[in-house]
Request: fold
Amino acid sequence: MKLSPSLIPALISTAWAAAIPDTSDTSVAAFEDNHYDAVVVGGGPSGLAALSGLARVRRKVLLIDSGVYRNAPTRHMHDVLGFDGVTPAYFRWAARKQIEFYDTIQMTNGTVVSITAPDATINSNTTTPYFTVTTAFDGGSDATRNISARRIILGTGLRDLLSDTPGIRQNFGEGLYWCPWCDGHEHADQPFGVIGPLSSVPSNVREVSTLNKDIIVFVNGTDTEDNRKALDTASPGWQSLLQYRNITIENRTISAVVRLRDGSTANNGTNATAAALPSVEEYDLFRVDFEEGPSIERAAFILSIANEQASWVGRDMGVALYGEGRMYTDSNLLTNIKGVYAIGDANLDNSTNVPHAMYTGKRAAVNCHLDLAKEEASKDIYIEQLNSSSSGSTKRSVPPTPLDPRALWNVVNGDLDDVLFAGEYDQ
Ligand SMILES: *[C@@H]1O[C@H](CO)[C@@H](O)[C@H](O)[C@H]1NC(C)=O
Ligand SMILES: *[C@@H]1O[C@H](CO)[C@@H](O)[C@H](O)[C@H]1NC(C)=O
Ligand SMILES: *[C@@H]1O[C@H](CO)[C@@H](O)[C@H](O)[C@H]1NC(C)=O
Ligand SMILES: *[C@@H]1O[C@H](CO)[C@@H](O)[C@H](O)[C@H]1NC(C)=O
Ligand SMILES: *[C@@H]1O[C@H](CO)[C@@H](O)[C@H](O)[C@H]1NC(C)=O
Ligand SMILES: *[C@@H]1O[C@H](CO)[C@@H](O)[C@H](O)[C@H]1NC(C)=O
Ligand SMILES: *[C@@H]1O[C@H](CO)[C@@H](O)[C@H](O)[C@H]1NC(C)=O
Ligand SMILES: *[C@@H]1O[C@H](CO)[C@@H](O)[C@H](O)[C@H]1NC(C)=O
Ligand SMILES: *[C@@H]1O[C@H](CO)[C@@H](O)[C@H](O)[C@H]1NC(C)=O
Ligand SMILES: *[C@@H]1O[C@H](CO)[C@@H](O)[C@H](O)[C@H]1NC(C)=O
Reply:
């Protein structure tokens, strides 16, 4: 038997009634009594997108947001349809305001400190398995509290590891950036610098090739024989590219990057703070000082910087890291741990931007919802079979044998065009 779409809401709401206690009290104090379909860790674009997707199908979801955001240093967000040129805080505010409309979700400040997987010995055919999410509220001054969730969505993001060279951290995001799509257009045609190891030069030069012509690359002492040889292999023709573009290599060790002008106000009369336009020129100006010799002035820079997971809760609960320390996921954004998804910058596809974060949040929400729906249907069917066998019902004598996974899949999976169609069993 296939379930018709009209049966699905009834099926889901029955399961809810059993699994989800009353959550009408939305205060933090109520959390300890609450069980959630999912907890979303992180309130950046990926977490908000996951929350939105789950809110739309009336999942009971809690978003826990520490208030630490990778894009906090930047002036404006760009290349996000409908939000080009707004501040990151405005984007989050607008998203939260929309999602708030849905009454099955909650959002709270808090920092998740650890997550414990469900007890593997419980019988998940009859008892709902819950992750335990240990969370610090109120900036960590409060004792931690435990929240339970059937699924975990990690939108915990990355942290940029900025150099200690004076002026880099202090000015990051305001004339010093790493993503041309996010910040480059505001500095187009200005005297420009690339700061990074020699190995990063060709890709950075290509990325800004349509934005800046007057470019100096500051390789900070990495222009060595060995690095040149490595680059000849990794990026053949890189020297011709630099010659053709009239780009000079500055190899001296940087001692400081000093701000001479602030582009958030120096924008020739256009109020960039107001963000009334998608893109407003920002006339920052910096002086690069070296350990020896004269300084050089530049208006803006692209930087090459390393990064790492902003939170270790995924790794610490056993999520495998992959490549450059990104959380492993399959194409459904599921990690190696059943029931745990990783979305946004923190996962393994090396794509780190807001549209990608929103896409992965949305995709995880769809898969999470369908996975929960399967679990609910399977439990209902299993219990119904036990009931009918123990009551000796003659009306419906469904055999008490547990369904094998394939049979169960055939029961709960929709037809090709159904909303619950989730692909063939052997996909
Ligand atoms: C919640 O996080 C925001 C930053 O996003 C912060 O300004 C605010 O103080 C936090 N509130 C609490 C109660 O921790
Ligand atoms: C929270 O859960 C963890 C992991 O299951 C447990 O070790 C801890 O004692 C719990 N804390 C509270 C306050 O219940
Ligand atoms: C420049 O090189 C020095 C010495 O190796 C290093 O300490 C510093 O972090 C580097 N600065 C930048 C901006 O890469
Ligand atoms: C660049 O600087 C490094 C470190 O000071 C030095 O070893 C290297 O020889 C320099 N390269 C050139 C081409 O001068
Ligand atoms: C490089 O400089 C030369 C000489 O000034 C100039 O003719 C040429 O157009 C420049 N090339 C680029 C790509 O700007
Ligand atoms: C805008 O102001 C900057 C800094 O004062 C100046 O360098 C630039 O030429 C001005 N641009 C225009 C279009 O007026
Ligand atoms: C620019 O706009 C912001 C936000 O509307 C406002 O707070 C600020 O005073 C304005 N600055 C100037 C120089 O007009
Ligand atoms: C991401 O980057 C890492 C390290 O550079 C690489 O090993 C991995 O294959 C990349 N992943 C994808 C999906 O391209
Ligand atoms: C199974 O039986 C129990 C106890 O009689 C009852 O509460 C429950 O609703 C039944 N469940 C189903 C799915 O029929
Ligand atoms: C749960 O149900 C599945 C499929 O019906 C069955 O294979 C499994 O043995 C059951 N597990 C327990 C602990 O009863």
Remarks:
- The radius of gyration is 26 Å.
